[in-house]
Structures are given as C-alpha cells and as structure tokens.
UniProtKB/TrEMBL annotation:
Gene3D superfamilies: lambda repressor-like DNA-binding domains. Coiled coil: none annotated. Residues 92-264 form the DUF5753 domain. This is Helix-turn-helix transcriptional regulator. It comes from the Bacteria.
Length: 271
C-alpha cells in the first residue's frame, strides 16, 4: 500500500487537500513536474504534498488558485486546515523531517532534547509519563537519533540548553553523569554547537516553551512543544516568529567555551 492510499480525507483536512490537489492536477492533464515549475519548487515537493508527507504552503495554494482559476479554493482549504486545532500537522512526521534536515536548531527549557538523550536518561524521562511500552519508546527515540547522526552527511546542529537542564536531576546521579558526559562528547563533533543559557539571564522569551527549527529542502520549518504533544509549523510567516525567538534566546546564551565549562561543572556535582 502506497502513502496516497493511506490518506483519509474524511479524517484530516490536510489529507483532503492532498487528494484534491492530485485529482485536480490529473483532471487538467498537468504533470507533477509541470506543477512543481508552476509553484517554483522541486518535483519531489509536489509528490510529498500529494502523498500527505508535507502540507501545502499557503503561497503555493495562492499560485495554484490564480493560475488554474480556482477562485481561492486551495487558499481557503489551507487556511481552514491551519485553523483546525484538532487537525494539526502530524507529529509522526517530525522524525521524517529530522532525518531529512540539513540543519537543526533547538532550544530546550527543562530537559535534554530527545535527539541528544542517552538511553538511561530517556528511560527516566518516559518512566514518569504515560508511556505503556518503555522499551519500544526508547528504541523509537534511538532510531530517531541514528537517522540524524549516523548519516553520511549529518546536519549542522545548534542547541541552546536552559540552565535548568543541567541542574534538574533526571533519574539517578549515574544517569545524569552519563548524560552530561554524552553532551560533552557531542559538543566535540565539528557539526554540533552546544550552548547554555545561564540563570542570570532572568525571564526571557524562551520561557514560552521549547522549540526546534529544521532546514529541510532548503526551507525552514518549526516544531513547537505543547502539553499534549507538539506540531510542525510550516507557514513561512509563522516559522519566522520561531526564528526570531531562537535568535533572541541565542543573544543571551553563553559562548561555546564557557558553556562547555558549565556542563563539566554540572557533571561533577552528580557524585
């Protein structure tokens, strides 16, 4: 069964858009490559939209409506989909976007980001939640990490950790020592940049919540944390707001060298 057969337009507005785009394109006898040229993107973008792997962008919808004389049909559909909180873009696609990303920027308010966690730290985090199968959840997270870091050309990774991440015990002292040592090892990699935002920074925009910015196909998308799960943000105007937040947080964070010292000092407190 291919990905298009898995779409459910009765359940998801985004799936409905994907199905309708494919149907409209075929009705008009337009190839995927021709539609890609129309919106100024690669053929693969059209394929991923029609298979439901990524959502249609508002600017693409506007171009299609204008060029095909559809009287704002797809523009309205995309706006409706974005406004429906019960139909957020699939969290399950985050791992796919991470694996394809050429750049990842993360701000973490209270925990080590999932992509940087050790198995023991992950187990400690999941143990206090509602995860039914710990081993399966840990394996899934490790697979996400491998898909990002074990590639021939891993992405450029920039991470800003709130000071709480270093001082908040997660699991035992041994778990924390292993985790902080792992952060130091990751920081030695040429494509990984780790910085810490000190307590002295006070209250700042980072307290709005953790976030991730991914560059996929030369385009930035964001992932916003939420109490009952997160969601991918793809609209360029919305993504820009996350980029502004990340930049403001970065302006306050310590440089790489002092940040490494802070991580080392925190490690030594877990005896």
């Amino acid at each position: 069964m291919n990905s298009q057969e898995l779409l459910d337009p009765d359940r998801s507005m985004w799936d409905y858009i994907a199905v309708e785009l494919r149907k409209e394109r075929r009705t008009r006898g337009v190839s995927g490559a021709a539609l890609a040229r129309l919106i100024g993107r690669d053929r693969s973008i059209v394929s991923r939209i029609e298979s439901g792997k990524i959502p249609m962008q508002l600017d693409h919808a506007e171009i299609i409506d204008r060029e095909w004389n559809l009287e704002r049909r797809f523009t309205r559909l995309v706006k409706f989909a974005k406004e429906r909180k019960d139909d957020e873009w699939r969290l399950g696609d985050l791992s796919e976007q991470e694996a394809r990303a050429t750049r990842a920027r993360m701000w973490e308010l209270g925990l080590v980001p999932g992509l940087l966690q050790t198995p023991a730290y992950t187990r400690a985090v999941f143990s206090v939640g509602l995860v039914r199968d710990l081993d399966e959840a840990i394996e899934t997270r490790l697979a996400r990490q491998a898909a990002v870091f074990n590639k021939e050309r891993p992405p450029e990774v920039s991470v800003i950790l709130n000071w709480v991440v270093l001082e908040q015990p997660v699991g035992t002292a041994d778990v924390m020592r292993e985790q902080l040592a792992h952060l130091l090892e990751l920081g030695d990699l040429p494509h990984v940049n780790l910085r810490v935002l000190e307590k002295s920074a006070g209250v700042h925009v980072g307290y709005d919540g953790s976030l991730m910015l991914l560059t996929v196909d030369a385009r930035d998308i964001a992932y916003a944390e939420a109490p009952h799960g997160g969601g991918l943000v793809t609209d360029p105007k919305d993504v820009q707001q996350f980029e502004v937040r990340y930049d403001r947080i970065g302006h306050l964070a310590a440089p790489i060298g002092p940040s490494r010292v802070m991580i080392q000092q925190a490690l030594e407190t877990y005896t």
